[in-house]
Amino acid sequence: MPFNSIFAWVMKKRIHQIDLFRKYPLEVQSELFEKIINLGTETEWGKKYNYELIRTYEHYNEKVPLQEYNDIKQYVDRLISGEQHLLWPTETKWFAKSSGTTESRSKLIPVTRDSLEECHYKGGTDLLAMYYENHPNRKLYKGKHLTVGGSAQINHLTASSYIGDLSAILVKNLPWWAEIRRTPSKDIALMSEWEEKIEKMAQSTIHEDVYILAGVPSWTMVLANKVLEISGKENLKEVWPNLELFMHGGVSFEPYKSQFENLIPDSKMNYVETYNASEGFFGMQDQINSNELLLMLDYGIFYEFIPMHSFKGVDSEEVVCLAGVELNVNYAIVISTNGGLWRYIVGDTVKFTSKTPYRFRVTGRTKSFINAFGEELIVENADKAITHAASKTGAVVREYTVAPVFMNGIESGAHEWLIEFTRHPDEIARFSNLLDEKLREVNSDYDAKRSNNFVLASPIIKILNAGTFDNWLKSEGKLGGQHKVPRLSNNREIVEQILLIMLRDKIVK
Q: What is the Cα–Cα distance from 264 to 430, expressed in whole angstroms?
């Protein structure tokens, strides 16, 4: 039987399993909860919190504390040094560097064989399964799959233990059937020097028959532009005629969509959003032309949620499991996983748009918001506003970040937007007004604070030179891969660093 026929059969079988948790989400999560608690019983963590006595979610909620990274770091350090069975009963030898936007130092998230196979790889397979369901008779396996990922390095404390971006850990351990269709070669894909890596990725893939692109939109665009520069072609379809799918995640696609439509001028090109973090593969777009993600419930992850209106980090008291969520409420995600994370606060926020099945939108991060004046601005608001302003003024935004300008005497506060444009707006004043109007439309708290400029004045727009954000990321050791520019900050620390980088670059020039 031809491989494509076998592949299509496997995909169809998996769709049936996905349909089961679409129809019976709470039952699937209940069974999963019981399974991971039983497995956790034999770990040091499980013994500390008497997992053998836990029978219900209510008991779990009551007896096991919420965790953030600093709470588990001591266990991670011990795992890196070679100890085992601390958080999960099987071997833990891989550690994913979290791409968290606001942490100055990377978190190292433990990755087990169970989480690798039953979560991350399963997510990749399911992406293709849903794509085949929505687009029958496609032959994706005939072409190459190009993923723009990060780098990995050997953890020298133990010979077989790796530290690196999640994407690199995945590449290092890919099954044979996935490896034979991946491009570029591993030695290029895992390079740590980002600028050289992009050059070599472009050089080595321009003559491949690429069907699928995957990666964070911003860094995928860097590669795409390098491919066009080297090849001398006008767009990516001239380089890769059979390109038909871009699987993206990490940041909102809204600000980048028009740019990709220019890079790939093909009405039949498909874009599928994913929500895959170092901590787990949480969701994916399962409907054509939808901005909602299906919550994946059988990946070895048990979900809890903290309403953001009562969020106090590990001291939060209001926590609900999936059965207790409500629509259109902003929640922080809490996970217990087959990677050994227990009641771990991921740092991302979501809103559910449906419970039949459970679909959601990513709205931002617990630490990426602005509430300096009671405006409660979240990333979802900012992405909508900047996309709207750009589309109306002919602008193309490459990157942006926002921070408050605090009140000074009788002067109102404001939001300062640092923006790097690929194409500048026709009028910056009009861009600013459109941005402000959209923010007032989508956020009633912001609108109230903007009334008569009493608390908040109009946005302050500062246009950055090309490359400023990359230079800042490089200065932080976070250039490339899954690392992202933070969209919103409740203080001016990051903005001041970026402005200093820009000033320094001007002086050097």
A: 29
